[in-house]
Amino acid sequence: MIRIRTKLILYFIILVLLVNGVAFYLYSSSETIMREYDKSFQRFLLLNEISQQTNILVEKMNAYIVEKDPVYLRDFNETNTQLRINKKRLSSEIENKSNYVVLTNYENMLESFLDDSYIAIRAFQDSDINQYSAYFNEATDISGYIQETTMSLINQELTSYQHFYSQMAKRNYYYRITAVLFLSAVFILCTILAIRISGGITNPIKRLSLAAKEISAGHLTGEDIQVTSKDELKLLTETFNQMRKNIIDLVNEIKDKSELDKLLKELELKNLQNQINPHFLFNTLNNIAKMAYLEEAPETTRLIESVSTLLRYNLENIDKPSTLKDEINVVKEYFYIQQTRFGDRITFFTHIDESCMNVPIPRLTLQPIVENAFIHGVESKEEGGTITLSIFKKGEQIFIEVTDDGLGMEEETKARLLNYVNDSEIQSNELHKRSGHSTGIGVINVIKRLQLFYQQKDIVEIESEKGRGTTFRFKIKGV
Predict the structure, then answer these.
(1) Nearest to 182 by CA among 20, 34, 35
(2) What is the pTM of this model?
(3) Angle at 100 between CA 94 and CA 106, to 5 degrees
(4) How far apart are CA 346 and CA 358, in angstroms?
């Protein structure tokens, strides 16, 4: 993860390097031009200095011969040494292809002039008048040639300097253009970098701010905020997205818990309505069962025991989960009671996978479904009917099927139930609808409690055809 601080430091480093690069380029270009000008100017100065030193050497030599003052001889020697040094500089500083021949003759003349001047001084000191006179005249003549050649070389330098100046002017123009382009490119690049870096910081913050405003207004849903950068803002955004998911999960959990509490309170109220002094009722039923047993009425005893078992199970804590085994036992007791009423008109079959008996399930789940099949399916059929309870396992899912061959279900009723399964709105009175002598715990209540208990929506399937019966199929998670 690259931190924002690191990005900003890198940006400023790049900016400083680019600006310094442009400044160095401009400085280097300026230095190059100045060196070229300096070289050209130094050539003029060298030729002018040689010309002056030649005249000075002739003057000092003449003054020494006339006045014989050692001071003039010393000045002569110093000038002679300086002239020889400048002569050596000619080949390295002035020589080129165009003036090679002239410069070579110029150097030879300087060499001859220096030698003749030196010989003239020595001849004068040795009092050799003829030799002194000859070399002094020759040195003086060569001095004139040197002055002429110096002017010729200066003229050539001036001619070259005009071309050089034209080239320098063009180069200086190109340097200015290049500098402007360079600065423009640096400005554009820095602007792009600034926009990208600032956008990478401000855009996620804007999206976070908008999402926070939506959450504060109560709109929790929305797509996750996407951030491509790998810095603190990515961590902040991921944390914000996870926080919103946690809030949504918490709200749903509170909503589910509230709805479950509402359903459970409704069941408790229904049970409370049926709890008319339950201990007295149980004791009375037990006394009736004992009297029936003493009077040798086993069927009556069995019926009373079934009613007592059913009543006791209904009055237990509705909030406490049960098992399929207990639910099946209650269903069997319920059906035994119904068979005592209707006899052979009603048939009850069970197909139970014993490995599913210990699976947890909300209390009072199977009896209301079987009761619904009995009341709405087969009770009103004159020829009677059959109800089948099947429990089997496929993979990790357990299937519970309650099937009747009764009157079947209206398409409107079936659609209403399926819409409720798919989170559509249901009229509040549907949760309280009661029919006949049922327990008052409707099918919708059962479906909702199963959805909340197993935390899955697609928990029920309904197959029904008018006149051919109905099948309620529940799919729950196995253990």
Answers:
(1) 20
(2) 0.45
(3) 75
(4) 29
Beta bridge partners of 462: 472
Tokens representing residue 115 in the block:
């030698």
Asked if 389 contacts 402 with a C-beta cutoff of 8 angstroms, the reply is: yes
Distance CA 169, CA 164 (A): 8
Dihedral sign for Cα 410, 415, 420, 421, please: positive
Show pLDDT as tens, one digit a residue, over the chain (479 residues): 566 677 677 777 887 887 787 778 777 777 777 777 777 778 888 888 888 888 898 888 888 888 888 898 898 889 889 988 988 888 887 777 777 788 888 888 888 888 888 888 888 888 888 888 888 888 888 888 888 888 888 887 777 767 766 777 777 777 778 878 877 887 888 788 778 777 777 777 777 777 777 777 776 676 777 666 666 667 777 787 778 777 777 777 777 777 766 766 666 555 544 544 454 555 566 666 666 676 667 777 777 777 777 777 766 666 678 899 999 998 988 888 888 778 788 888 999 999 999 999 988 889 889 988 888 888 878 787 899 999 999 988 899 999 999 888 888 888 887 777 666 444 434 444 444 444 445 788 888 888 888 888 888 889 988 888 999 999 988 76
Total residues found in the chain within this entry: 479
- Of 35, 56, 111, the residue nearest 103 (C-alpha): 111
Rounded to an integer, what distance in angstroms lies between the CA atom of residue 349 and that of residue 275? Answer: 31
**Pairing between strand 397-404 and 469-477?**
antiparallel
Parallel/antiparallel/unpaired status of strands 346-352 and 385-394: parallel
DSSP 119: H
Q: At what angle do helices 443-454 and 366-373 cross, to 10 degrees?
A: 150
The closest alpha carbon to 304, from 323, 284, 320, belongs to 284
The SS3 of residue 474 is strand
Q: Which pair of tokens denotes residue 205?
A: 């913050």
CB 375 within 8 A of CB 451: no
Residue 343 carries which DSSP code?
G
DSSP, residue by residue, 9-41: HHHHHHHHHHHHHHHHHHHHHHHHHHHHHHHHH
- Identify whether the C-beta of residue 321 lies closer than 8 Å to the C-beta of residue 362: yes
* CB 404, CB 377: distance < 8 Å: yes
Q: How far apart are CA 194 and CA 157, in angstroms?
A: 52
Alpha-carbon torsion angle 266, 269, 271, 273, nearest 10? -140
> SS3 of 126, please?
coil
Residue 399: what are its φ and ψ, rounded to 5°?
-110, 135
The amino acid at 252: N
